[in-house]
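Hello forum,

I keep getting stuck at the same step: I have a sequence, I want structure tokens, and every attempt I make locally crashes halfway through. Rather than fight my setup again tonight, could one of you with a working pipeline run this one for me? It's a single chain of 325 residues.
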Amino acid sequence: MIKSLGNYYKTAFEQLNFIFIPEKSSPYDRVYKMLPDYGEGTIRQINCNNLFFVLIADFTPKEHFVRVSQIHEDYLEISQFETDSSSFKIGRKKLNHVDKGICCYINTSKTVYTHCEAQSPTRFTKILITQAYYYKFLKKRFKDGYINPKDAIHFLSQNPNLPKLNYIFHQIRDCNAQGNSQQLYFESKVLEILSLVADHLEQSQKRPPLKVRLDKRDLIGLKKVVNFIKRDLSAYPSITQLSKISNMSTTRFQMAFKQTYGTTVYQFLKEIRMNHALLLLKNSDYSIKDIAAKVGYTNAGHFAGIFKKTYGINPKEYRNIHQLK
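Reply #2:
Ran it on my machine without issues. Output:
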């Protein structure tokens, strides 16, 4: 068992057939390139004073591989995946497929198995916040106002599509700062993420609880609805159609969905659409009109208005800043 994240990342990438690239690196920002025999692409590992780490990955392995890690140090991991070619499991639990969007968990010294599919791009940005930062540094600064990591995990697991959160990860990925300014920028973004989670947690706690007793079949039905929505973001399914998929009445379905995902089904759909629009604007050459259509908006102007209301920037401006960096 490795004692800390810092010790783990000293050798982790070489063991996964990456090679260190010194000319593209600095003492706290290390770039690794996948060996040609095993695939192509890179991983960046930014060490912020051993308090938190940022990983930025964009690689395609030639063969399926598994990363096995067991780290004694407790830490909170929040990730944004731009691809859906990875899976993971903790200890003896079942394998979990990672969807595009936000994924998170708390490390508790158990063995973690991470799977990456052969010939499939793997693209993610991760923030790993150590216990020293979370409990000592943040608690000292904010007293009882800091977020309990278990509360944060619970909230993020129910709300993986928050557009503002996804947007912050894009900003982290595209940061060109170096040295001290880079360290300050990443810390500001970590605090921004935690403040965003804290704000949404406070707002959700103020809402009156919805008491719908849900069994395993209900949760499976809701998952079917989410998968149905994600399959075609250009569609606008009716509540009646979605409730039939969930095998519930329309009233029960709407209450169950909000209780489980913390928002209405149409707000959930809008959030997924906006997140997908970010990826298309950044990683494709589709016109803004075409992107609007792909995420369910026949009027590009209407799409641009919703995008700007969500992110504070219009689609063209976002593309000019972030595309293909």
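Residues 179-206 form the longest helix (28 residues). If your local run keeps crashing, start a new thread with the error log.
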